[in-house]
Design goal:
Elements lengths: L6 H10 L9 E5 L29 H9 L1 H7 L1 E5 L10 E5 L6 H11 L3 E7 L6 H9 L3 E3 L7 H11 L3 E5 L19 H9 L3 E7 L18 E6 L15 H25 L12
Parallel strand pairs: 2-8, 3-6, 3-7, 4-5
Antiparallel strand pairs: 1-4, 1-6, 7-8
Length: 285
């Protein structure tokens, strides 16, 4: 699923990312072809998604998911997506999203697909234990993440993906869903910022709201037809001025706090404008 890794690459990843827990659930979005980091596109409308050029690997199960899974999600929920144009048509970007529910990966994936890019997930290895699910995940180019093993390969894969002009989506809070009672983002882990400092890729905060009423681990679940699911992208965050501090823990923590503050602001905007009739007073953790 990926090119062989050199020992030098692994050692570099170990220096930049002290623990695999610096990252949590990540989505890698593939471009139509690889682009060097110097060719980051900061603006312009996203291009229509096309097949990879130059004999690139196709992912048949991705197309199956688009045909089978995407239409019901598109029709059942009332989607609102602000800032699609902020995801560049080409070049690397790190999208940092908040995590309200199990619906969020579908929501963020749909957001990225609408922007003209192709999603590829780093999924927990336990999902690959089911033969059918493993067939779908492997057939669509997903990468297993073996949590708690010290395996650095997901971090290496993310670094290599950005170097090839891809988009990595990170849920920086480090939990399956936020535990804050107002559903604001929690304290972020530093993996996304460390990755940005190491690669030069910009960070784009993308908030979502509404999924917490649909699909959480416990509590009330409401899957009414037409429920609004909203997403909003903020302004890209360029951390290249801090590239010489890529291995400094204090810098990574300070910049992570700034990124999470931006994300929290977007979440607050969505929460305040979300239709009251679709809100509920209490949702379980």
């Amino acid at each position: 699923m990926s090119a062989p890794r050199s020992s030098g690459e692994s050692a570099e990843a170990s220096r930049l990312f002290e623990r695999p827990s610096d990252f949590t659930g990540m989505v890698i979005t593939r471009t139509r072809q690889g682009y060097p980091l110097a060719h980051i596109v900061a603006d312009g409308r996203p291009a229509r998604m096309t097949e990879p050029e130059g004999g690139g690997r196709t992912e048949p199960w991705f197309h199956v998911c688009r045909v089978v899974l995407l239409p019901p999600f598109k029709l059942w929920f009332n989607w609102r997506m602000d800032g699609l144009e902020k995801i560049p048509a080409e070049g690397p970007m790190i999208v940092v999203g908040n995590h309200l529910s199990y619906l969020d990966p579908f929501a963020h994936a749909y957001f990225v697909v609408r922007a003209g890019r192709r999603p590829r997930f780093l999924a927990k290895a336990e999902l690959f234990e089911n033969p059918f699910v493993r067939t779908v995940l492997e057939g669509s180019g997903q990468i297993p993440v073996r949590r708690g093993t010290g395996d650095q390969s997901p971090l290496e894969d993310a670094t290599r993906a950005l170097a090839s002009g891809e988009v990595v989506v990170v849920y920086a809070e480090g939990t399956s869903t936020t535990t804050n009672p107002d559903f604001s983002p929690g304290r972020g882990k530093t993996g996304a910022v460390r990755l940005a400092l190491a690669t030069g890729a910009p960070i784009l905060p993308v908030a979502t709201w509404g999924g917490q009423y649909v699909w959480r681990r416990s509590g009330k679940r409401r899957i009414e037809f037409g429920r609004p699911i909203w997403l909003r992208a903020g302004e890209p965050i360029d951390l290249s001025a801090h590239a010489d501090q890529a291995t400094d823990a204090r810098t990574a923590r300070r910049l992570t706090t700034q990124v999470m503050d931006r994300l929290a602001g977007l979440v607050s905007e969505l929460r305040d404008s979300y239709p009251k009739r679709w809100s509920v007073d209490k949702v379980g953790p």
